[in-house]
Amino acid sequence: MSTPWHHRYAQRTQRMGSSMIRELLKLTQKPEIISFAGGLPAPEMFPVEAFEAATQRVLRQHGSEALQYSTTEGYLPLRELIVEKMGRYGIEASVDNVLITSGSQQALDLIGKLLINPGDLILTEQPTYLGALQAWRAYQAEFSTVPIDDDGLRIDLLEEALCGGPKFMYVLPNFQNPGGVTLSYERRLALIDIADRYGVPIIEDDPYGELRFEGEHLPPLVVLDADKLNGRQYTNHSEPHSYFKGNVIYMSTFSKTLAPGLRLGWIVAPASVIQHCVMAKQGMDLHTSSFVQMVAYEVAKDGFLAEHVRQIRQVYRERRDIMLAAMAEFFPPGVRWTQPKGGLFLWVTLPEGMDSTAVLQDAIAHNVAFVPGATFYPEDAQQTNSFRLNFSNATPEQIWEGIGRLGRVLEKVLDPVLV
Ligand SMILES: Cc1ncc(COP(=O)(O)O)c(C=O)c1O
Questions:
Q1: pLDDT tens across 78-88, in order?
Q2: Ligand 1 pocket check: which of 40, 99, 104, 148 to mutate, most ligand atoms within 8 Å of Cβ?
Q3: Which among 373, 306, 365, 314 has a CA at the least distance from the CA of 346?
Q4: For residue 201, what are the CA distances in angstroms to 139, 170, 191, 196, 228?
Q5: CA 89 to CA 301: how far, in whole Å?
Q6: For ligand 1, atom 6, which residue shows the shortest CA distance?
Q7: How far is the centre of ligand 1, averaged over its atoms, from the C-alpha of 209 (Å)?
């Protein structure tokens, strides 16, 4: 219904609308539904007791600092912890290269505020993270896309897309959301090479890199970019690099390793970019909660976070294995899926011409849910025969049962004679 407010909204709100899929997903909150839809971590893995003790320590030892306004850049010990953590992945940054954000979702919004003029073209993977599309639509961005396959972004199609003159590329190299795939080492090198030749910066979004279940860790794009600038060959990611500059803005988050309710993420970028982000962030929220930053630091320090991440990896690996085994058991022929080596998601492709949004309606009727693939494409590039499954949130028993239910739904839609 139209209200007087309807005429008052800024033009940029026009593409923010609610979608049928979001309405359908509201139904998946019912307790009887086994939902593989959200990107939620396993709640039983949240270190609640460690948070309880840390909260007490922060309030007793630094109560007034924790409850006071603070600097926009973020709590210094937490930034130092991030610098140390990044160093383990070969990213040599100093605290001047790190900004704490209110979740990496805010980092995406900051990037939009800083870089996007109305009508600017942004190049994304196809499919890509819905939250980035949402953040950047509000800045009136246009999108062009390059498909992914099992080795990540299709580099062979990249140059053609770059001819459209995008402002930047948005890439999720590790256990991509939603595809679950990882950009191979060869493609990382090629991507950096091409980005350099075309002078197009890269936004590297890496919430899942630490959640690798198997295989070798691959160097982040930001490290390969620094190597190229410094005329070096990547050799060993445990050897830190001597300086931080370049063409890549890196971001990550504590959401998948500690707890998403903290709303704590970070950006690593050249110091001048960080300064601009700081100015942009001041207009959003002045700073990320000092209290939460201090509590998170108290929990994470002295190796607790590293040990905790090891435990999460084990739990998620087991859940991924069960989901893959259940799919092999229950999904009918003609359905394909990715084999993620880490992260939270895998991607299912149905035969050509099928509509996963219609399948979701059947699935909900059978008390199981997923996110239809169309959600993860900009409007004009949508494909309908795919969907995303999350394997971190449900228990192994629920995964087996839920995939069984979904298998029966898929059998019916693929072979209507059985109905
Ligand atoms: C690729 C990607 N980027 C950013 C985010 C946002 O995470 P945060 O909770 O840190 O805002 C997510 C969350 O699922 C994500 O998958």
A1: 999 999 999 99
A2: 104
A3: 373
A4: 18, 9, 11, 8, 14
A5: 18
A6: 105
A7: 12
Q: What is the pLDDT of residue 349?
A: 97
pTM above 0.85, yes or no: yes
C-alpha R_g of the chain: 22
Cβ(122)–Cβ(170) below 8 Å: yes
Residues whose beta carbon lies within 6 Å of some atom of ligand 1: 39, 103-105, 129, 131, 172, 177, 205, 207, 253, 255, 260, 265
* 55 CB burial (10 A radius; 0-12, 13-18, 19+): middle
Structural domains present in the chain: 4-46+306-418 (3.90.1150.10), 61-304 (3.40.640.10)
Question: Of 319 and 23, which is predicted with more confidence?
Answer: 319
**pLDDT tens digit string along 136-180?**
999 999 999 999 999 999 999 999 999 999 999 999 999 999 999
Confidence (pLDDT) at 6:
85
* Distance separating alpha carbons of residues 282 and 26, to the nearest angstrom: 33
